Amino acid sequence: MGIEAMGLTLMRPRSKEEKLKLEIMKGPTLIVRPDITIMQNTVLTLLLTTVLASVAFSATAGVPPELESTEFSKADITPCPACLCAAPTGELFVGVDLLGSLGKGPGKGRIVRLVDTDNDGVADKHSVFAKVDNPRGLISVGTKLWVLHTVIPESTGKLTGMHVSLFEDKDWDGVADGPGKILLSNVSPPKHNQDRGADHTTNGFRLGIDGWIYIAVGDFGIHGAKGTDGTELTMLGGGVVRFRPDGSEMEVYTHGLRNIYDVAIDPLMNIYTRGNTNDGGGWNVRFIHHIQTGEYGYPILFKNFTDEIIPALVDVGGGSGTGAMFLQEEGWPEKFTNVAVMCDWGRSQAVIHRLTPDGPSFTQEPETFIKLQQITDVDTDASGRLYAGAWAGAGYKGNPGKGWVSRIVPKNWEYKPFANPATLKDSALVSLLRSRSATARLAASQELIGRPAAAKAVASVAVDKTAPTDSRVAAIFTYKQMAGEKAVPGLSKLAKDDPAVREWAIRALADRKTQLGGLTKDLFITALRDKNPRVQVAAAVALGRLGDKSAAADLLAIAKLPGVEKEEAVAAPKPPAFQTKAVKGHKTHKVDVDVSKWKKLYLVVNDGGDGDGEDHGAWFNPVFVSADGREVKLSSRKWKTAKSGWGKIGFGISATGKPLKSGDGKAQPDGLGTHANSTIVFDVPKGAVRFKAQAGLANTSKGKGKIQFAVSDSMPSFAGAGNSKEGPHATPNSPIILPHVAVKALVDLEAIEACLDAVGSVNSRSALWALRKIHDTKVVDGLIAKYNTSSEESLKADILATLIRIYQIEAPYDGSWWWSTRPDTRGPYYKPIKWEGSKKIGDFVKAQWSAGEHRDIIVAYNAKTRSAIKGVDVASIASAPVKPVGPKVDLSAIARAKGQVGKMSIEDVMLALDNVKGKVKRGEELFTQQGCIACHTTDAKQPAKGPFMGQVGAVLTREQIAESILKPNASISQGFATVSVETKDGKALVGFITAQTADKVEMRDIAGQVHTVKVANIKSKHELETSMMPAGLANSLSMEDFASLIAYLASQKK
Fold first, then answer.
1. Which residues does 982 contact at the CB level (< 8 Å), separation at least 6?
2. Sheet harboring 181-184: ordered strands across?
3. What gap in Å lies between CA 481 and CA 446, rounded to an integer?
4. 55 falls in which pLDDT band (50, 70, 90)?
5. What is the mean pLDDT of residues 511-516?
6. Is the peptide bond before 299 cis (omega within 30 degrees of 0)?
7. Cis peptide bond N-terminal to 677, omega within 30
8. How many whole angstroms separate alpha carbon 806 and alpha carbon 775?
9. Which CATH number fits domain 578-712: 1.20.1070, 1.10.10, 1.25.40, 2.60.120?
10. How far apart (Å, rounded) are the C-alpha atoms in residues 89 and 646?
11. E strand map for 835-960
12. What is the DSSP letter of 62?
């Protein structure tokens, strides 16, 4: 029978002698890529490499009917293809990495050069071009090959660095002439690559038509990278960094992204990547359009400070992005050209994103393009041959017998050789700038850069209004690279006179900070008011690079948040009208609040943070009271929404489903039972003036719970608590882009005086947005002075919020630590520390608190920014802890019990499962009975525990789910590996990490209990090879019950 899973159909043998046959089919996949060992959090993951040992693959790609595929090279030549690039003339370079993502040791990487001399779709010549460790990116231009790689010396076997090196093959014999020359050193911190291997690291790169090389930097970040001109760069977290091909002028292009593996660059210099979000907290893939200087927010802004980021264009669900390119080649069907092609290793497919202009950015629609097992990378040569690498089950640590490269071309396609650009005359190269092949234009551009006599001819293409836009753009950037600052007059005229290419003329003019001579702000100021939003964005970025602070007023005028016509007080979550401290025991707390002006009633129960888990909260005798004293029982009303961290919600019942009783044992039929963390929302009935109740723990808590109650007319703010809901970080928001880059320009200009002058003016909000990004005592003094001289309360509130925001600063990144796969996403800083201005800010805020000024703002922003300013009376507001804890479960006892399943072999269980379907309702009961709830949830609204089961049926078949339960050690979800921790005070803990900040680690043990350990108290921590899920949890079940449990899990397709 067929098992459709992970993009594959696995044919089960009818006899033990039959071999397994695997055919590539439709469907999502859940396979890890070479740089990242995550698995989608919607499954009890089944690691594909455990299945692949006895299967045979089709080695050609699944392509649309208009295309055809051949196996270009096999695993004996190109196993484990981590990256590849094609020379425009057709030679293919493949980065072979036998270490994969977690392997260690030297001598396992090489670059293989392949040639198809007879163009039959199969390489017939190959050579080892160079031996390097962990090849992660390749660019071929002429006789040069740029390589992104690590260095692991044979003498120590320990990785010492990751670099960009330049290799040359001047005699074109297929072997590099010597060792590579390092252009950029330490583009990823050695420590993290040593500890984990080359995952989350710096990966693929591409050369743009503007002559910059753009690198995808994973969230290991960069510490102390150095270019050939002495430029040094440190970056906390991931993003795109660019540099000139000679290793100079290294700079950050965008920031705030996770696990981007490669960059796609279109002919108009739009840049795209695929990244994702948190391991274990939703690691879905996001498609990103990169706007120069953009901040994308991962991990400290994208959840709780979304108004400060440029969001991704879409969250496409589970997967794992790898190689990327923009496909524009002659001879290809129109539907498959001018498209961004993004490889998804996790889904074993390359995806096309159909782009529609949206202001300065795009909206998109994805569609499947190529299906290839664990696809790693794609590239084309100038004749139109597309090459794609397949990891094909090579696993975490590589496998010399796995992997291949496919060649894909249109059907009935005719090969037309592309001449070596070095052999062409100037006129032929200039003509190639008009080619419909992006690869050909880039090859011609690179050759023309070294031929200054052709500059005038190149400029003629740039000004030719009959030429296609992409050809004119290629000419603009080629001309700028040829002429340098001498290109300023011509490009300035083009920017003024020709709106069709104004955007790119502006970009080229300010593209290199080393070539700004002769430029003034006037051209760019005028462009800020252009009708084309892309021109406006290019002008704002240019002004930030130009360095003229006198442009600040114009930047402030366009830096307004979209939809804001009038300056208003910063919207802050209100503290609740009623709130207790974190309470224990069976004492009840009187609730009596004025609801006469409320439209909605929010009843909130938060976990008190003791880790016990018996947090069975209740609202006893809840009633609305009218002005004449009449009472309306809350139990007579229907709630609008209700959610809790565990168990049941209902009138007259406890969270366990038992009849609700108060701590003294008295029945409470009208009481509302729930479990922390809980939010229940009701409409306030007309005429109601008060809400009354008694809040306390239900008797089913046995006095062990510890919870906090709150009543409000909206979702309340709790001091110290971050917003648990992610902001819209993957929803297109084109109106934010211009103000975003304008604010970034103001920060780059350090336009402190201009911003302070604008506080209180029509541009006040823009100014405060910029000032909260600048840590300077001039800002502190200026804001305090503005506060003291202002009579406008909303402005004073905004100033207070800004001061609280800059009370702390991000600690300098030293490369010694990494936030791991579960970073703290609360923001706005990851490792906040105090700075020179902190004391003055703290004293000022405390003075306003003492004077009774804007206490709601102080409480809200002190909590949101985690500033912990002492002296403000927030002690009465208990901090809301991270997560509730489920009931204790003895998994070992469950595993020891023997029923029908425990007495059968795994093979017999799997065969019997074919004939027993099971009952979903019974399976839901067994999910609790068998202890699954200790480590898993099926509701996305519930706080995460272990691997999420709410979508497992959409990804795995019944058989795969069953096998994962019977053999848990065969597949351990990345992010949920079993960890052993020994503390300095002598405790030993074993479990998986559910949350981690710079200061503490939260673990869930085998009983489902949560333990919080301070990082400073950890003596040792290491991962174990076995799953924390014990084998045998289904042993006590009959086949009917086991089938019912599988049926329930298979039904989870949310």
1. 988, 989, 1018, 1019, 1020, 1021
2. 133-141, 144-151, 161-168, 181-184
3. 9
4. very low
5. 98
6. yes
7. yes
8. 6
9. 2.60.120
10. 62
11. none
12. B
Angle at the Cα of 930 from the Cα atoms of 925 and 932, rounded to 5 degrees? 90
Q: Where are the domains of the chain?
A: 20-283+318-410, 424-509, 578-712, 751-815+824-864, 885-1050
pLDDT tens sequence across 423-445: 999 999 999 999 999 999 999 99
State residue 752 phi and psi, 5-degree precision: -65, -50
Query: Which residues have CB under 8 Å from 24's CB, separation 6+?
Result: 7, 8, 57, 58, 62, 348, 371, 372, 373
Which pLDDT score is estimated for 814?
Answer: 95
Helix, strand, or coil here: 104? coil
3-state secondary structure 482-537: HHHHHHHHHHHHHHHHCCCCHHHHHHHHCCCHHHCCCCCCHHHHHHCCCCCHHHHH
Residue 898's pLDDT band (cuts 50, 70, 90): low
**Would you say 375 and 274 are in contact if contact means Cβ atoms under 8 Å apart?**
no
Per-residue tokens: 773 = 């990004």
> Which of 356, 517, 448 lies closest to 462 in space, CA to CA?
448
Look up the CATH number of domain 20-283+318-410: 2.120.10.30
Q: Are 214 and 263 in contact (CB under 8 A)?
A: yes
* 741-760 residue pLDDT tens: 999 999 999 999 999 999 99
**Quick check: helix, strand or coil at residue 747?**
helix
Distance of CA 1048 to the CA centre of its chain: 31
d(CA 529, CA 535): 9
Position 96, amino acid: V
Taking Cα atoms as reference points, which of 305, 74, 82, 109 lies closest to residue 201?
82
CATH code assigned to 885-1050: 2.30.30.100
Phi first, then psi: what are they for 133, rounded to 5°? -90, 145
Tell me how far apart the alpha carbons of residues 669 and 658 are, in angstroms, rounded to a whole number: 11
Check residue 613 and give its pLDDT. 58
The whole-angstrom separation of Cα 647 and Cα 616 is 9
Q: How far is CA 214 from CA 133, 237, 339, 723, 975, in A?
A: 21, 16, 19, 34, 29
Cβ contacts of residue 16 below 8 Å, gap of 6+?
Answer: none
What burial class does residue 497 get, using C-beta atoms within 10 Å of its C-beta: 0-12 exposed, 13-18 middle, 19+ buried?
Answer: exposed
Give the burial string for 951-990 (b: 16+ CB within 10 Å, else e).
Answer: bbbbbbbbbbbbbbbbebebbbbbbbbbbebebeeeeebe
Query: What does the pLDDT look like over 622-639, one tens digit per residue?
Result: 999 999 999 999 999 999
Closest to 81 in 3D by CA, of 372, 279, 283: 372
Query: How crowded is residue 485: how many other Cβ atoms within 10 Å of its Cβ?
Result: 15
